């Protein structure tokens, strides 16, 4: 199976070099026109790289990079900016915002492929050792979006992963529903603040020996939720 690239453009009327440089024998290309809903598109297509093909560096692109950076599950996705024109500080701003490379047209098909391959190869070296977050016997595998207690690994949905990752990044700290919705949720997915309770229950089914009597993912009545290492708390 070919690695997938999501190409994001201002509109479907843009002149493009991407199809000329990259055919589906090298990568599986998917397209989005406009920047609205970038998180939803990444969740749907699961690309290894997002290529922003733009007329110029602008706030909408910067905001899209910020949206992607906000979700732990997207950390492994590479981002490249391919722009028609650029000011003196645009490349610096793009890299500061989370882009892995900033390319300027005109660019040859060969150079574009080489730069894409270099970004993906660099990332493969960086992630050769899987990034695992642990809390006692609980392990969260960030790249695979899986969790284990002991030896059995279980797959997490993107929302389950974001929620558990956020809690494990702050062990012992109590968060109310609003804080969790603000920091660990896909915005368009929020319809009812009680959705937090639903996902807490789902996580307990995956990380607790007895979900009805949780030892790790706890409720503080009237305050919110927290995660702890039960062995450490006994000591």
Describe the protein in words.
The chain has 235 residues and is α/β, with parallel strands linked by helices. The protein is 36% helix and 22% strand. It is built from nine helices and eleven strands. Strands 2-1-3-4-5 form a five-stranded parallel sheet, with helices on both faces. Strands 6-7-8-9 form a four-stranded antiparallel sheet, covered by helices on one side. Strands 10-11 form a two-stranded antiparallel ribbon. Helix 6 crosses helix 8. The N and C termini lie far apart (49 Å).
Task: Provide a concise account of the structure shown.
This protein is α/β, with parallel strands linked by helices and 235 residues long.
User: With helices defined by DSSP (H or I, 4 residues minimum), what is the helix count?
Assistant: 9
Tell me, what is the CATH class of the largest domain? Alpha Beta
Average pLDDT across residues?
A: 85
- Number of structural domains: 2
- Please summarize the sheet with the most strands: 5 strands, parallel
Question: Mind telling me the C-alpha Rg?
Answer: 20 Å
Order of helices and strands: EHEHEHEHEHEEEEHHHEEH
Shape from CA axes?
elongated
Structural class category = alpha/beta
Q: In percent, how helical is the residue content?
A: 25-40%
Beta-strand content bin: 15-25%
CATH superfamily of the largest domain: Response regulator
Might you state the CATH topology name of the largest domain? Rossmann fold
Question: Distance between the terminal alpha carbons, to the nearest Å?
Answer: 49 Å
Overall strand count: 11
* Residue runs with pLDDT of under 50 for 5 or more positions: none
The order of strands across the largest sheet is 2-1-3-4-5
Q: Architecture of the largest domain, CATH level 2?
A: 3-Layer(aba) Sandwich
């Amino acid at each position: 199976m070919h690695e997938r690239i999501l190409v994001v453009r201002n509109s479907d009327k843009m002149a493009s070099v991407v199809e000329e440089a990259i055919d589906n024998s090298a990568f599986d290309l998917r397209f989005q026109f406009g920047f609205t809903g970038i998180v939803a598109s990444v969740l749907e297509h699961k690309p290894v790289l997002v290529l922003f093909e733009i007329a110029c560096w602008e706030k909408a692109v910067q905001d899209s990079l910020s949206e992607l950076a906000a979700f732990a599950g997207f950390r492994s996705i590479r981002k490249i900016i391919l722009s028609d024109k650029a000011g003196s500080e645009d490349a610096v701003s793009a890299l500061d915002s989370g882009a892995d490379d900033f390319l300027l047209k005109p660019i040859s098909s060969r150079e574009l492929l080489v730069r894409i391959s270099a970004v993906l190869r660099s990332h493969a070296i960086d992630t050769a050792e899987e990034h695992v977050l642990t809390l006692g016997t609980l392990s969260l595998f960030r790249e695979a979006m899986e969790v284990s207690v002991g030896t059995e690994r279980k797959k997490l949905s993107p929302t389950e992963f974001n929620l558990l990752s956020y809690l494990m990044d702050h062990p012992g700290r109590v968060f109310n529903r609003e804080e969790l919705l603000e920091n660990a949720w896909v915005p368009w997915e929020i319809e009812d603040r009680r959705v937090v309770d639903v996902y807490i229950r789902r996580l307990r089914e995956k990380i607790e020996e007895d979900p009805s009597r949780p030892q790790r993912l706890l409720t503080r009545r009237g305050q919110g939720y927290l995660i702890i290492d039960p062995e450490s708390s006994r000591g």
